[in-house]
Amino acid sequence: MIPGRPELLRRRRCRLLLFGMVLGALLPIYQPSWVTLGIALVGVGLLVLVYRRECRDGAVTDPARSDTDTRAPGA
């Protein structure tokens, strides 16, 4: 099955987030200073948070489109 445009854009965004994490890890190597290290750590940390939220699951899970009812019985 050929993935749709939203799935392709999600994959591209995930690849760019990984690329940004690699660049953030390499930054202190090429510009060694405590300021650069701090900026790289904060930047990579933010990218990891966004990556875990956006790309950790294999598919986009939208609760509004879910066919399972998560409410308690009788609610």
Quick structural gist:
The protein is mainly alpha-helical. Helix content is 64%, strand content 0%.
Structure in words:
The chain is mainly α and 75 residues long. The chain has a domain at 9-55. It contains 2 helices and no strands. The chain has helices at residues 5-30, 34-55. Helix 1 runs antiparallel to helix 2. The radius of gyration is 18 Å and the shape is flat. The mean pLDDT is 83.
List the helices and strands and how they pair.
Elements: H1 5-30, H2 34-55
Helix pairs in contact: 1-2
- The quaternary structure here is single chain
For the record, give the distance between the C-alpha atoms at the N and C termini, rounded to a whole number. 39 Å
**How many strand units?**
0
Question: Number of helical segments?
Answer: 2
Share of β-strand residues: under 5%
Q: In which range does the helix fraction lie?
A: 55-70%
- Uncertain residue segments: none
Round the Cα radius of gyration to an integer and report it.
18 Å
Shape: flat
Q: Given the helix and strand composition, which structural class is it? A: mainly alpha
For the largest beta-sheet, the strand count, sense and barrel status come to: none
- What sequence of helices (H) and strands (E) makes up the elements? HH
Overview features:
75 residues; mainly alpha; 0% strand; flat
